[in-house]
């Protein structure tokens, strides 16, 4: 507007101009206040950039700038394809590169890497404080070593640098320019050094160690020393011993690195063995013991020791030998019900003896990496110690009365997971039938009875569920990395793991019930070959067996409460001897306990239901407890039958079977047998108490019930 006014020229007399000012005043005012807008077209087209700016919309889309790869150098290794990954919380080095170059020793890694597809992966270990060179800068990095193939056809990165490295390097990734800015803090180390008070006299290139305490004033130190002398002199004058500081070193067992037995053989206590067993040693100086049969020939013993020495990494002597089964095979998950609410329980009071037991167990778990401290778990369960009890023993009271008791031999630390188990969805993986396992084992000539070393502690827990295993004790709250005892789904998980590892062997020459392995063979060579396969599979899957509970190449052994040998199956005499010395029960609980122990061997007792009828009547509702002569007779007869229980044979399917039935007024019984070399052998005893309706059956119908009961039992067991 100012330019327009500059170009306007008016030739008017002054008086005429003054007269015309009111006429032009309104027009000039509108021009000055811009009320008169210039005429513009009704439609104006603008480009995409102007439209995005005016409408406040998103900026125009750009193409993928590419993967942020940089060049790094680690010692003698140089990589042009190191990935900067903002989505990774760790830095990863492939196992193939670790095998090619000398990056230093690995440390134990108690971490499970869960990939984006929720696939768990177990690292070899961790490399700490690895110096990585990027251009002219050096950065310390911690790498997890994982087994994966790097650099396939130039598409995959060699090394993955995660967020810890990016934070250390102050990295700023510019995706538009495709550049990475890294900064580093520089410092003049000459100016930072504190001069040493004493000159270095030695000609060697050494550095003196100094600390901030060297700056203490000498006069102040002298005052403290004089004051201490005054205290000692005064105490001596008063006839008291001078004060002295008591120093006690606390063992730092938490940070102590446990070494495997193959690197540092432990000193073990060797218990006395039965005559049919003996110790042999797989290490020098009588270390790394195992238990084998004592009646083996020299040739057989040499062959067995050779196999055990080859696969001795499958045997564990201490908890440091536990490597952990790969999570790719099995991983325990704790799936809670959708409506379940987390529960935090408080710790329970423990007496000094129990506190010491808990302390030792917690330190042992920490040293082995089985547990870790945690403070923010939504599930917290209490710790409880329960007594370790031996078998039932009969002792005499003050009045000469016989009392059945189970003496305490020690204490066991347990976690009370009852509230967690109540909120957990149950796993219904089936367990094998005990009678099927016993029948397949009986009649064989050689056995290897193996047992897992803390079997549950060898299975990893899913990282998302580890906090649910948190337990509280006087020393803090801790959670399990490995599966503990007490979880409701732990048996199913362990059995599933064993079946996935040995599925091709089970039933042929191997039987598994939880962590009890039974290898059998009709000859020494067959049993040894199967043992070799099992030990090799254990080494491949990191499954560790207990040296103390594993017996190799024996002729008989106790499996699930039964004595198995070439003769067949028998009752465990140790348990029978205890039962035979029990006094008559004095209450319903004692009756139920006795029948429970005796009922475990009911297949060995002819007419079990008939014998136990008087005792079972005492368990009926609203029946007074009266242990009369008839009950005492039944009680003593049952003990006699247990002591004289016969040896049962496994069935020979090439021979015909014989069934013998018997019926009484209130029970029926049957015997399944065969004739081997014209001699009758017993395979199975069955009995059943008749119901009220079945009491009206004829004798023939009752015998048919007995035979059908026996056939059903055998069909189910086979």
Overview of this structure, please?
- There is one protein chain.
- The chain is α+β, with helices and mostly antiparallel strands.
- Among the domains are: 69-181, Cathepsin D, subunit A, domain 1, CATH 2.40.70; 321-566, Roll (HIV Type 1 Reverse Transcriptase, Chain A, domain 1); 588-717, Ubiquitin-like (UB roll).
- The protein is built from 19 helices and 31 strands.
- The strands form ten sheets. A six-stranded mixed β-sheet has the order 11-12-25-19-23-22, with helices on both faces. Strands 14-21-20-15-18 form a five-stranded mixed β-sheet, covered by helices on one side. A three-stranded mixed β-sheet has the order 1-2-8.
- Helix 8 packs parallel to helix 13 (524-541) and helix 14 (573-580) runs antiparallel to helix 18 (629-643).
- The radius of gyration is 42 Å and the shape is elongated.
- The termini are far apart.
- GO terms for molecular function: endonuclease activity; nucleotidyltransferase activity.
- This is Reverse transcriptase domain-containing protein.
- Residues 408-563 form the Reverse transcriptase domain.
- InterPro entries: DNA/RNA_pol_sf, Peptidase_aspartic_dom_sf, Retrovirus_Pol_polyprotein, Rev_trsase/Diguanyl_cyclase, RT_dom, RT_RNaseH_2.
- Keywords: Endonuclease, Hydrolase, Multifunctional enzyme, Nuclease, Nucleotidyltransferase, Transferase.
């Amino acid at each position: 507007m100012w330019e327009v006014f500059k170009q306007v020229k008016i030739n008017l007399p002054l008086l005429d101009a003054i007269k015309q000012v009111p006429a032009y005043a309104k027009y000039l005012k509108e021009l000055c206040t811009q009320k008169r807008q210039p005429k513009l077209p009704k439609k104006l087209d603008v480009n995409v950039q102007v439209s995005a700016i005016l409408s406040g919309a998103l900026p125009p889309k750009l193409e993928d700038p590419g993967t942020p790869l940089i060049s790094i150098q680690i010692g003698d290794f140089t990589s042009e394809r190191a990935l900067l990954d903002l989505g990774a919380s760790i830095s990863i080095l492939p196992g193939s590169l670790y095998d090619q170059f000398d990056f230093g020793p690995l440390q134990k890694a108690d971490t499970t890497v869960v990939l984006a597809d929720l696939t768990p992966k177990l690292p070899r270990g961790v490399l700490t404080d690895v110096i990585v060179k990027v251009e002219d800068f050096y950065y310390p990095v911690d790498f997890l070593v994982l087994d994966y193939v790097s650099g396939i056809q130039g598409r995959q990165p060699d090394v993955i640098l995660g967020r810890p490295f990016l934070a250390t390097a102050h990295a700023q990734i510019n995706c538009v320019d495709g550049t990475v800015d890294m900064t580093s803090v520089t410092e003049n180390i000459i100016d930072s050094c504190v001069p040493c008070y004493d000159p270095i006299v030695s000609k060697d290139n050494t550095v003196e160690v100094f600390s901030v305490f060297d700056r203490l004033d000498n006069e102040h130190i002298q005052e403290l020393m004089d004051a201490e002398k005054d205290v000692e002199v005064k105490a001596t004058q008063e006839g008291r011993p001078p004060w002295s500081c008591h120093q006690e070193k606390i063992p730092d067992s938490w940070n102590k690195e446990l070494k495997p037995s193959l690197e540092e053989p432990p000193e073990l206590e060797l218990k006395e063995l039965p005559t049919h067993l003996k110790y042999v040693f797989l290490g020098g100086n009588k270390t790394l013991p195992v238990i084998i049969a004592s009646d083996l020939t020299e040739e057989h013993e040499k062959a067995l020791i050779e196999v055990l020495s080859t696969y001795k990494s499958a045997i564990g002597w201490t908890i440091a030998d536990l490597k952990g089964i790969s999570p790719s095979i099995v991983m325990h998950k704790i799936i809670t019900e959708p409506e379940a609410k987390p529960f935090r329980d408080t710790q329970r009071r423990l007496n000094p003896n129990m506190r010491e037991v808990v302390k030792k167990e917690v330190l042992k778990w920490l040293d082995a990496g089985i547990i870790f401290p945690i403070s923010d778990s939504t599930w917290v369960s209490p710790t409880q110690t329960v007594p370790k009890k031996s078998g039932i023993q009969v002792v005499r009271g003050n009045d000469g009365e016989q009392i059945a008791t189970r003496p305490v031999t020690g204490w066991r630390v347990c976690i009370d997971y009852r509230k967690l188990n109540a909120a957990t969805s149950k796993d219904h993986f089936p367990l094998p039938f005990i009678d099927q396992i016993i029948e397949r084992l009986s009649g064989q000539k050689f056995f290897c009875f193996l047992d897992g070393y803390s079997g549950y502690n060898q299975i990893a827990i899913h990282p998302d569920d580890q906090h649910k295993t948190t337990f509280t004790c006087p020393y803090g709250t801790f959670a399990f990395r490995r599966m503990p005892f007490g979880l409701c789904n732990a048996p199913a998980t362990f059995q599933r793991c064993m079946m996935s590892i040995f599925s091709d062997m089970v039933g042929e020459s191997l039987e598994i019930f939880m962590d009890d392995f039974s290898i059998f063979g009709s000859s020494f060579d067959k049993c040894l070959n199967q043992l070799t396969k099992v030990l090799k599979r254990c080494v491949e899957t990191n499954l560790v067996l207990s040296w103390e509970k594993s017996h190799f190449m024996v002729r008989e052994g106790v499996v699930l409460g039964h004595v198995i040998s070439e003769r067949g199956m028998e009752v465990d005499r140790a348990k029978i001897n205890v039962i035979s010395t029990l006094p008559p029960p004095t209450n319903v609980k004692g009756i139920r306990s006795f029948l429970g122990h005796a009922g475990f061997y009911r297949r060995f007792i002819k007419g079990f239901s008939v014998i136990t009828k008087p005792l079972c009547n005492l368990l009926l509702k609203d029946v007074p407890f009266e242990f009369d002569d008839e009950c005492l007779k039944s009680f003593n007869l049952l003990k006699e039958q247990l002591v004289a229980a016969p040896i049962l044979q496994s069935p020979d399917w090439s021979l015909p079977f014989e069934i013998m039935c018997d019926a009484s007024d209130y029970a029926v019984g049957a015997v399944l047998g065969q004739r081997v070399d014209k001699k009758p052998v017993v395979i199975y005893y069955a009995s059943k108490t008749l119901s009220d309706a079945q009491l009206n059956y004829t004798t023939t119908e009752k015998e048919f019930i007995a035979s059908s009961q026996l056939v059903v039992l055998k069909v189910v067991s086979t």
